[in-house]
Structures are given as C-alpha cells and as structure tokens.
C-alpha cells in the first residue's frame, strides 16, 4: 500500500509542501463543524499526529465512520503549511476507510491509567505512552549494540535451553516434552526419558557460556531473553526479561566498574540525544525533573562503596525504620539499597565486595577469605540494575566453592576446564534492560516497560 510515513513528512516536510501525498493511520481525535471537519491521524511512526482538513463541499459528503476514534484510514491530499505556525496539515481529497472502529473501542481520548491499560495488553500499545516507551526501548537496545561494537566486543548468542543453573538460586523454568508419570521410578529416570536425556531449563543467565566465548574472543556480550521463576511479585521482577551480559578477559573488578559506568552513561546520552520528544512526555506525565535527573547522571562520578562500609552507614542511618535487619552477612534488601543511593549519596552507587555466603559460586574470592569481588550498581528510585563480578579463575578454589554449595561438580566440568587451560583474570556483569528502562522513563512498574509482561500468576 503505497503511502508516506508521517514521521518522514515531519522530518523532511519541505520536500512535500504543496504536493500530493498519501498517508495511512488511525484517527486519534476528530472535530466536526458545519462546513469543515478535522481529524488527527497517527500512523505509529512517531508520536506526533498529522492534522487532516476535510472541506465538506469539496469532498461531497463525509462517509459514516471516518471521524470515529480508532478508525483506520487511507488519505490522499495536498500537504500544506498549517495556517497557525510552521507545522503541516493535509487538505484531504480522497478518504478510504480501511477499518472501522465502533464506539465501544476501549481506548478513549482521555489519558488512561497504566492499571487499566494492563487489562487490555493488546490495545495499550497504541497509546502515546507505549509508543514512546517502545521507541526508547529500541533506542536503548541500539545504543547498547553501538557501545559494545565500538569497543571491540562481539555479540554472541548464548543458548536459551540449558542444562545448568548459572545463578544457583533454583529459579529455573523446567523444559520438558512430557509430564511426570508413575512409570518413572525416580526423578533421574524421568529426566533421562526426556528430550535431551537430562534435565533442561530456560536460561537464567548466559554468563557461563559467555565466559567460554570470552576466553576465545577476549570481549563478548550477550543480549537476549532471560527467564526466572522468581516468586517475588514486585514492580521490579519479571519472569521473562532481557539481560545484557558483557564478559571481559584480562579484567579485574575495577575494570568491570569502569565499563559499567561508561555503558550506563552512553545509553542515557544516546536516549537524551535521539528521543527528545519521548523523554519530554515522560518528564511531563511520569517523573517531574526526569530530564535533569538523566543529565545529572552524565555529569556525576558513580560512588564506589564496599558492602562492609554500606552496612556501617545503614546501621548509623537516622530517622528511618527498616523492615529487614541490617547485619554483616545478610543480603541488602531493596529498602537498604534505595536508602544508600537515594538518601546517602543521591547518585548511582556501586556496592562491592559482598560476603561470600550471599553471592554466586563463580565470584572471585578476595584475600580476606570472607568476601568476593562482586558488585551491584544501585540507582536512585530503582535499586539494583546491574549485578556483576570478577570471576574465580583458580581451579581449586572454584571447585571448592561448587562443592561447598552442594552443587554437582560434574555439571560444571567444562566451566572448570576454563580454569585449567590458560586461565586468566576475567569478569563481567548483567544489566537488566527493563530496570534501566524504568529509570530512564520514570515508569514505576516493570509490567509497563515490556510488550507483553510475564510475572508470577500472570501471562497476558
Ligand atoms: O544480579 P543478577 O542475577 O546477575 C546475573 O545473572 C549474573 N550472571 C550477571 C553477570 O555477571 N553476567 O542479574 C543481573 C541483572 C540484575 O541486576 C537486574 O537488573 C536484572 O538482571 N534482573 C531482573 N530484571 C527483571 N526481572 C528479574 N526477575 C530480574 N532478575 C535480574
Ligand atoms: Mg543481582
């Protein structure tokens, strides 16, 4: 269907003024009067609508349904400068209804709340909010690829079907082709009869395979869907989300922090640069001061703080009652993380060197025998958006960590072999795409930065 994108008309309007154009789109608003009618058309290619002017005498008559909110139209007409200002509009000459939209259309002209929109997941994508969010999601994804590509990383595609639980947190979705049956003597016999002849699941992280690729290519990153059967029903957790995991050979923890800070700044810079209209919408309707907040990140130096120091600061915190206890050895809860980044430092904070017992088996053990070279990046308003570490590159120490956790060393044979053949200091991190989108848009719920969210008890 030959037509011109509305985005293109706005970008290169001088090329089209006083010429005949064909546009397609959906009616967003309409206004009828005695001799004239007006409608605002949106084709999804940009947030801006295009005004269409209908001269009733010239058009003979206006067919029923043309002015209905949500109707899909094809319009031929002359593009002209609008009378009030330097915008553009189309004087319609021919209008075809491609699809009617009856009055019970669930999206009306008013601004609907996100809670209501979640009940119509197939239609909410048509709102300005979702159009803007999805455009920013796209811009963030492209910026991530640009950053890594410019810095000698190779994008590798790690498997989605895996046999190991990278994080060891027992949050793996099982993948099977047949149900349990009493004929299987035990779990092992059941798994052996299955498609892969062993237990399989959806990946919770591409890190382990990413490390193998980094030991070959030096610098890699993964960028793909990640699955966790996490029962936390919060505004920050999804069962399916996208994660970006760079893995870098010949790197120590401080190098990992440097890359993480640079990447976050690159992403935010790119969005401010390329998504001005979209960001303005979120600044106006979701988080007042959003643009200043994002600019502030670009000019700030992220704080670096050890876990031990963080515990000290939290213990001294005045005027706040935390729900969860603060004690060396216990994990930081979101309320603690947010206090550190929002109240104490008011900027992004890397917390480093966590107690060994609360972190994953693969993290580099520090000389103190108690902590590991791990980091979480905390952002105001969100909490953790990145988790990463230097990796344990010593064969014996890694084997012991696996055994100490009651994991089966046989399952990690190949991963352990990386530590046998040319082992080197290396590390990386995982950035949650949805978490950074929450920060960049000011949207409060992870369900609203995804096309179709999947969370515990909910699959739209
Ligand atoms: O801290 P996590 O669990 O780290 C890892 O998976 C490591 N293997 C990463 C690495 O070192 N290569 O997860 C990393 C990030 C979190 O900081 C968070 O942003 C995001 O992934 N994330 C989630 N996002 C949405 N919903 C969930 N359920 C998430 N779980 C983790
Ligand atoms: Mg984490």
Bound molecules: 4-amino-1,4-dioxobutan-2-aminium adenosine-5'-monophosphate, magnesium ion
Question: Stretches where pLDDT falls below 50 for ≥5 residues?
Answer: none
Quick one: biggest sheet? Answer: 8 strands, mixed
Strand content: 25-35%
Number of strands: 18
Notes on the structure:
The protein is an alpha+beta fold and 460 residues long. It has 14 helices and 18 strands. The strands form 4 sheets. The protein has an 8-stranded mixed sheet with strand order 6-10-11-16-15-14-13-12. It has a 5-stranded mixed barrel with strand order 1-2-3-5-4. A 3-stranded antiparallel sheet has the order 7-9-8, with no helix packed on it. Strand 2 and strand 3 (50-55) form a beta hairpin. Helix 4 packs across helix 7 (253-274), helix 4 (128-150) packs across helix 8 (276-285) and helix 7 (253-274) crosses helix 9 (290-298). It is elongated. It starts with 5 loop residues before the first helix and ends with a strand. It binds 4-amino-1,4-dioxobutan-2-aminium adenosine-5'-monophosphate and magnesium ion (MG). Residues 166-167, 205, 207, 228, 230, 237-238, 241, 243, 245, 384-389, 428-430, 432, 434-435 line the site of 4-amino-1,4-dioxobutan-2-aminium adenosine-5'-monophosphate.
């Amino acid at each position: 269907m030959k037509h011109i994108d509305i985005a293109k008309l706005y970008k290169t309007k001088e090329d089209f003024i006083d010429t005949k154009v064909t546009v397609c789109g959906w009616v967003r608003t309409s206004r009828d009067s005695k001799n004239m009618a007006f409608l605002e058309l949106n084709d999804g290619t940009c947030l801006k609508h295009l005004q269409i002017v209908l001269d009733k005498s010239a058009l003979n008559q206006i067919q029923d349904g043309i002015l209905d909110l949500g109707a899909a139209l094809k319009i031929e007409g002359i593009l002209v400068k609008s009378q009030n200002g330097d915008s553009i509009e189309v004087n319609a000459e021919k209008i075809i209804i491609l699809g009617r939209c009856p009055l019970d259309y669930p999206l009306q002209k008013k601004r609907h709340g996100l809670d209501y929109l979640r009940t119509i997941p197939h239609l909410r994508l048509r709102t300005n909010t979702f159009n803007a969010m999805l455009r920013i999601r796209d811009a963030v994804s492209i910026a991530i690829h640009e950053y890594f590509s410019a810095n000698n990383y190779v994008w590798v595609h790690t498997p989605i079907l895996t046999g190991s639980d990278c994080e060891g947190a027992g949050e793996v979705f099982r993948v099977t082709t047949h149900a349990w049956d009493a004929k299987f003597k035990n779990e092992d016999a059941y798994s052996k009869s299955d498609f892969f002849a062993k237990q399989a699941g959806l990946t919770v992280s591409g890190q382990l395979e990413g490390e193998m690729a980094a030991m070959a290519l030096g610098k890699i990153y993964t960028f793909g869907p990640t699955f966790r059967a996490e029962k936390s029903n919060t505004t920050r957790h999804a069962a399916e989300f996208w994660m970006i995991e760079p893995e870098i050979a010949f790197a120590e923890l401080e190098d990992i922090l440097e890359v993480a800070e640079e990447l976050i700044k690159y992403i935010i810079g790119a969005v401010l640069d390329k998504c001005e209209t979209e960001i303005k919408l979120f600044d106006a309707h979701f988080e007042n001061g959003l643009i200043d907040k994002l600019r502030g990140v670009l000019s700030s130096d992220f704080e670096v703080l050890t876990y031990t120091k963080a515990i000290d600061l939290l213990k001294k915190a005045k005027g706040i009652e935390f729900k969860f206890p603060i004690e060396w050895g216990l994990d930081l809860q979101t309320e603690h993380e947010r206090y550190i980044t929002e109240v104490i430092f008011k900027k992004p904070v890397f917390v480093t060197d966590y107690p060994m017992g609360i972190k994953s088996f693969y993290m580099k053990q520090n000389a103190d025998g108690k902590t590991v070279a791990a980091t979480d990046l905390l952002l105001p308003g969100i909490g953790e958006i990145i988790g990463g570490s230097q990796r344990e590159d010593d064969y014996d120490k890694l084997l012991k960590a696996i055994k100490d956790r009651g994991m089966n060393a046989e399952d990690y044979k190949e991963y352990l072999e990386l530590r046998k053949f040319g082992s080197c200091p290396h590390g990386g991190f995982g950035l949650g795409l949805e978490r950074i989108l929450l920060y960049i848009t000011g949207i409060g719920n992870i369900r609203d930065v995804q096309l179709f969210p999947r969370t515990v008890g909910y699959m739209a």
